[in-house]
Records
---
Amino acid sequence: MSHIYTHDKSREQFLRAAKVIPSGIYGHQGPAEGCYVPVDAFPLFSQRAQGSYFWDVDGNRYIDYMCAYGPNILGYNDPDVDAAAAAQRKLGDCVTAPNTKMIDFAELLVDTVHCADWAFFAKNGNDVTTLAIMAARAYTHRKKIIFFKGYYHGISPWTQKIDYAGVIEEDVMHNIYVDWNNYEQLAEVFAKHKDEIACVIAQPYMHGNFMDNELPQPDFWQKVRQLCTEHDTVLVIDDVRAGFRLDLAGSDHYFGFEADLICFCKALANGYNVSALCGKNFLKNTISSMSYTGSYWLSAVPFAAGIACIEKMKRLNIPQLLIEKGNILKQGLLDAGSKYGFDLHVSGAPSLFYLRIADDPTLMLHQEWIAECVRRGVFFTNHHNHFINAALSEEDIAQTIAIAEEAFALLRKRHPQE
Amino acid sequence: MSHIYTHDKSREQFLRAAKVIPSGIYGHQGPAEGCYVPVDAFPLFSQRAQGSYFWDVDGNRYIDYMCAYGPNILGYNDPDVDAAAAAQRKLGDCVTAPNTKMIDFAELLVDTVHCADWAFFAKNGNDVTTLAIMAARAYTHRKKIIFFKGYYHGISPWTQKIDYAGVIEEDVMHNIYVDWNNYEQLAEVFAKHKDEIACVIAQPYMHGNFMDNELPQPDFWQKVRQLCTEHDTVLVIDDVRAGFRLDLAGSDHYFGFEADLICFCKALANGYNVSALCGKNFLKNTISSMSYTGSYWLSAVPFAAGIACIEKMKRLNIPQLLIEKGNILKQGLLDAGSKYGFDLHVSGAPSLFYLRIADDPTLMLHQEWIAECVRRGVFFTNHHNHFINAALSEEDIAQTIAIAEEAFALLRKRHPQE
């Protein structure tokens, strides 16, 4: 039997945090978002991290399947990436004139990413999704944007929902929402709004929260690509979350089509702070004509880290490695669930798997299972996809499956089959 | 006579950059923005930086008065800030659960910044100006935003101009623009749009580009503050550029009033990548209710750097130190100009001084003078305020004045007085 973790120091620190920080911890890493329920099962503050693990402030170690919500792809504190970053830091980071590491990084992305003729760097995924839709509007002289329901493209007003705090109707009045994988519906929207659609923005597959993740149907992307081309509409792929966990050449390449603009962040530099928009040559002058910058955008340390990260990802063929690890874990979890009569659904790409126990539409059974895994040192969350990193070992996976099985067994004891 | 710098390697690298990066170098650090003319006088890429200097790729050393456009406040590679950051990096930076350094940093800002009851961290100045206006709209249930002409609050659509590429009319249709220091005009706008104005957003004084910088008139801010209070309008101070170079308690405190929300970035962590929104308690729940986050926002290294930076700024009383250095430089530049009959205007705060030779409305004479300073190792730019950092020595200032005088002498030789 596993040792059961408690989180007294996390609770204490959260009370401190709540006094001086709105929500205490905000965003996807905070308890308010709904991925961390029941709250008392989860640690709230980390003390340190290394490889595939992090330790919380109560001294508990977790096998980490969230990877800081994506950035940790090679393992925390990867020695190659950290060495490249440290060497650059000695020379300079945020300096009045940029370092040529920026050019090296752009050249490497152009060599690596299939649709990339150029690269533009910023700091958040949101910076580059916003640049993408502004560029599409500037290039097409049109206003409308098509989204797939279940999307997430950041936190700027244009991409939030009308009922979210701080959003006004003018922010989102040109947004059109269609169902994922429904080509006919999309084609109807194009027919209805001929010459009005600036861009389609989409994740490479539907990896939304609170829903089983859904891969594209065969030929879906090829038909969408053709529709966009026929209507001179810019096709934007938001690869912030999935990027480099499916294909180093871009997730569009993985699914056999070519985006006009593609957005990267997260895994781009193993946690160093950088994002990138890459795109086709026909949009380069448009980007050049725009007023778009930020205080730290040309800092050299994240460029050095990004170069080291991409070179290592190429050397190790990271997407294949992560998919293999994910497949082993997936099979182990399915077997463990089935042993105790639970209908576990594992959806999405294996390197970004989404979990749901399908036996209970209230989600309570699923949340109970996740909580028992977390209390034993496997950091899953309830209603968000997970992330695999390269430091995750066979032993980590075996231990994860053993703990998952223990949690299933406990659940079955509490909820006997009729 | 000074050695005259050339920039062959910068040109070579720029040709490389232009192939794979839109504009080659974009934003305020790029030659396209208009601050770097004549382009051939300026270096485009740096090789390293230390203290008050950076070296370009041709090996030229510059006394740097742009400070990476603000972030460098203590000197490049400050040993105390870098040591705190390196210690945190060994433990972890971007981790699934945040580090308690986030709480320490928030508590320190609440202790330091006069109007701060809480702090919220992000990555760009733009992240926090956008959060501020969204929070004001959410709190007031109003749409209109008042700006002062000449403002810069980032690059989100809501804050760009209607004629900028990628901006649509709906982005800016609730924006109202008034003249800086014109209280009567502001009061008229409030009277006309009663119960419609969500917020006033403003820099603490007018430090816009291509204009002499202008401090607030006596009582201007006190009257604006009162007007906002009477109309339940949120007063947002954008202290991204001026922050910590006037007053560690906030530039609102320097000018004797209290903002409802204040935005920091740049000098907050001496170049480490973090921004902050601080504000009053009555807006804390509104911020908590918003959906606002990003991939690297809870990373611990910039928090550790920010703590070390603020503690050192307090220890050294940095604003006073920078204002003193700025005043010595200002007097030296004025004397040097006047010796050769040039009417140099030095405006704004001495720690953020703006330069203009007033003898020539075409600006060509000014650009010629700046170019001759840059060619001799003093990095000024043409139409943007400058920044003083704490590593700038008496010798640096003396050398700067000597070079400025040499440039004035050359200018007078080329353009004899009639």
---
Amino acid sequence: MIKVGIIGASGYTGGELIRFLLKHPDAEVVTATSRKYDGEPIYKVHPHLRDSELKFENLEPGELDADLVFTATPHGVSMKIVPELIDNNIRVIDLSGDYRFDNLELYEKWYGFRHSNPLEAVYGLPEINRDQIKGADLVANPGCYPTGAILACLPMVKEKIVDNIVVDSKSGVSGAGVNPTETTHYPNCSDSVSPYAVTTHRHGPEIQEKLSKFGPSKVSFTPHLVPVIRGIMSTVHGFITEDVIPEYVQEIYNEFYEGEPFVKVLDKGEVPRLSSVRGSNNCHIGCFEIDENGRLVVASSIDNLVKGASGQAVHNMNLMFGLPEKEGIDLIGLHP
Amino acid sequence: MIKVGIIGASGYTGGELIRFLLKHPDAEVVTATSRKYDGEPIYKVHPHLRDSELKFENLEPGELDADLVFTATPHGVSMKIVPELIDNNIRVIDLSGDYRFDNLELYEKWYGFRHSNPLEAVYGLPEINRDQIKGADLVANPGCYPTGAILACLPMVKEKIVDNIVVDSKSGVSGAGVNPTETTHYPNCSDSVSPYAVTTHRHGPEIQEKLSKFGPSKVSFTPHLVPVIRGIMSTVHGFITEDVIPEYVQEIYNEFYEGEPFVKVLDKGEVPRLSSVRGSNNCHIGCFEIDENGRLVVASSIDNLVKGASGQAVHNMNLMFGLPEKEGIDLIGLHP
Amino acid sequence: MIKVGIIGASGYTGGELIRFLLKHPDAEVVTATSRKYDGEPIYKVHPHLRDSELKFENLEPGELDADLVFTATPHGVSMKIVPELIDNNIRVIDLSGDYRFDNLELYEKWYGFRHSNPLEAVYGLPEINRDQIKGADLVANPGCYPTGAILACLPMVKEKIVDNIVVDSKSGVSGAGVNPTETTHYPNCSDSVSPYAVTTHRHGPEIQEKLSKFGPSKVSFTPHLVPVIRGIMSTVHGFITEDVIPEYVQEIYNEFYEGEPFVKVLDKGEVPRLSSVRGSNNCHIGCFEIDENGRLVVASSIDNLVKGASGQAVHNMNLMFGLPEKEGIDLIGLHP
Amino acid sequence: MIKVGIIGASGYTGGELIRFLLKHPDAEVVTATSRKYDGEPIYKVHPHLRDSELKFENLEPGELDADLVFTATPHGVSMKIVPELIDNNIRVIDLSGDYRFDNLELYEKWYGFRHSNPLEAVYGLPEINRDQIKGADLVANPGCYPTGAILACLPMVKEKIVDNIVVDSKSGVSGAGVNPTETTHYPNCSDSVSPYAVTTHRHGPEIQEKLSKFGPSKVSFTPHLVPVIRGIMSTVHGFITEDVIPEYVQEIYNEFYEGEPFVKVLDKGEVPRLSSVRGSNNCHIGCFEIDENGRLVVASSIDNLVKGASGQAVHNMNLMFGLPEKEGIDLIGLHP
């Protein structure tokens, strides 16, 4: 039984980690930390976890006794915690942005922090780094937008059939986290849609850095907030560089993702929708249409809290500890 | 391995039955019928079930080879199918209203049908009929509103602390089924609330008949449609007949539901909400407040498609076949 | 031209007051105060008011030069502002709860404040106090729940056909105001429903006090939060004391509200819905059904920010200044 | 007083036309036709129009006595009605797609009909065709997507600062019309997002045809369905051909739309959102950011039923009859 600690367990990603791990046959949450809710049963914050007797504890990182710790802490906080855990021989999956970039300058430019504790980490997108994740002590869990966007772009970039890509993403509000703001205030965001950080979102350079290893494409990214609890729809508009037909593109995707446990390439005529993956660790990819302007459209849907965060983190844990990949996250989505 | 057939598998309750049974260790869906989608993979209708290779079949009831059949068929249709299944020694859980009433006249009055095939059936609410369900060949799965309402009312009725009850329920739109109507048209029901069938809903007499076995209360029922996909909030306003205090009422509920696998009595200060039970088979019951007019308020929340339909049906299956009660439906809700 | 000041103009009720007054032929907003947004154009906070050149000002009450001031300030704050305005010969419509109660003890019990500045005020529900409002210097604008609930109950109470009433109300989230909280955080309240303050909401005694002048009924009140931006559905369950028929009840309501500019009694077969009154100052009242338990059901719908707050406040202004009642608020709702 | 007829008045665009015209000082709806609801008061279908005594009539086009007729009829139906109206000296504003294309072949290719009655029509986007609309007998009211997309693209195209444009649009469900379908069924589209007709939507060639008169850009269009009642957000990603800065682009837009009554160019730092224009005839345009890949982002928001349909139609009426442009449609949006 893997002993698991979760630092920052009162947020949405913390709640999701516990949801998965409570049913995981080979892992057990031994510690769920929260400064604010120290001593409270977790179900006071996560009302759906009412069957669990777990309580929040206010522990310092150095006090944790665990085989693996998930750091579900904000950007800039993880870097202060992770090195001590690693020193204590605890393997770590970090859900913040602190260890996602290879290029430290890029991190510092977009996050506005100086990085105090650079460490070698593996970018935890199993579809591209499966083998490295297995041996890693520190895995940087990908951002929610990058997960959906990279999976939608990867085969077209790798096959070099496009050179210029626009990723237009639509995210549910849980992506903004558990803390209320004007933006997430129901009357302000319900029945509305708005773009934000249109050319300046931190996930843009993350997508670009990861994809650039596979091909020379330029990738431009714009996110939107939509009145949805969970889910990200990433619509990828790629301009083709050679004369390909939709059937060929579909074939590339089918082959690329064959055998992947959580990526589903849709049939011709199907479209990805958020409700198809709600609550599950799946990524649906479809469309594969090309218009008269040489624009190829591919769209992907994920649940931002699962494949875009905690589900993927458990997937990484399974890989790191040699467990079956789907253990604990073999969940069917909730449609309708 | 129990061989299961589902008649009428293309609706929401059919989809939910499959969702649970695909992960059930002791049951297997051998047949999922649909006239309209004959030959299609089920994921064309239920996009979240993409991993299943099951296909819809257009079979007559007499053609089914199964240990158990769920009839997820409309009111009035089940009565034409169920007797033949029973004759063929197939046990049946009927999700329609056809076998819910003890009093046939009541059924015929409220459903407007003559009942062509009355059979003895057990009302499948495990919390009141656990033992009878175990031996039953035909279980009538309760209505969605009655499930939440009866569970919220039962202890106060049984203890005879109230004699006059108003049940004001708020249901999500999936309760109206899979077929689009003006009422379920997004622009008509989103961002709105409306009462319907305010004194004439069929679930009113069902609630009354079942509760009247436990005490002499009058129960008045009014449902509302709220812009929610899943879930029923039933707010019970009961007028007390003796001078009780909230703590005593809470105690009654705690005792009554102690050990029940799916009913959770909330602590003082907690309120039931739909998101706490979304996607799960749980019923949350709370509030237990009494005002100056001698009105006791108790509220319950369920997922209408799970505890209010298919989850409860699988619970009944587990009971009928001597399996652990939570098998296949030990799901954690999806919050947020 | 009536010179109007609005104190606390950055909230939702402030925004609505401006929406109506910008098009009002006989009134003009000369001052809209906000401490936080001093100097900002109002459209930075109210993006729908982009055509207006009005700016927020940080003024003390004593600095206002106006014929009328709307105090859209929190409970407990109004009582510190209103007396000075009245002393300066400015008429006031207060949108807080500070002047709504006749019985000061009741106010202090439910609001938990000592009232520092009791003044004589007219309860600004035009349908019951039209004449007194005309001559008033201080009008207490009714609470949102009381507006819908009282209008739905009034004829049945006045005609003494019921003696025991349950008001089960469902409110949109804008009723919680403009400040984000956990309760109003989109992922927490979307796709969910929850009761709150089930026997302890301040609007309960307000409803009871106002109705008790018309008849001896007991009124019990429970509010719920529903995933809607605007609107309150109040479902009234009244137990009848004599043998009346629905047609008679409908007739009572038709007569009672005949000629009222903003109350619409629906026909048999119609139901009130929130979308029918969204954005308008109308109150729709309907249902008028009686069940076998002698329970009469009447339901009303209003927009909580309009008839339940700012629209009604402008209606009161029109009455106070001898203007046509519908001026500035003769708005058609937004359906769908 | 202009006598107005509406053919097809039971749909959403019909309801909106009546909403505006009931308050229009110089126009009067004399006839509102509906085959299905013949003889019914319009408020049975449009519950927000309860104050109107108008009734639906089942009239043939030849029976209408009017100065102007709005044909709110489906594509393919308008072409059978409009010529007779024109012959009878009735001016017409057609809300279908039948008269929008200059290039008839393009129409027939994308709509799949042979056009039976080509007539000369003016494309009713006042911002580009104000003068021609004034003298027109037949105005083709633009599609909802084209209205928002063209207004967002026009200045950048006219100034030739881009040559390749992706328009990624997100539409509310009312755009699908009043008839329920699986797509618009609340449980299917709530809390979800999906792309549709990703390279094949009819509004794509409409946008391209109109913009190509102003510059040589390629325009690629993909629409999405979002869980919103009203509104279209069009995010325009344009690749720049010369080295421009955001301030310059903003300046171009400010100048281009100066004096336009319904187009609002937002300030730096503001973003368009659907709630800012809900229920109004305004189009908000903002963003004006350029990323490292030379991608310029501009986004526009409209209410699809108002600026995207009926409000724009009334604007066209005002132009055709020499009335002040804002008459009847000078409505403030509904936020929140």
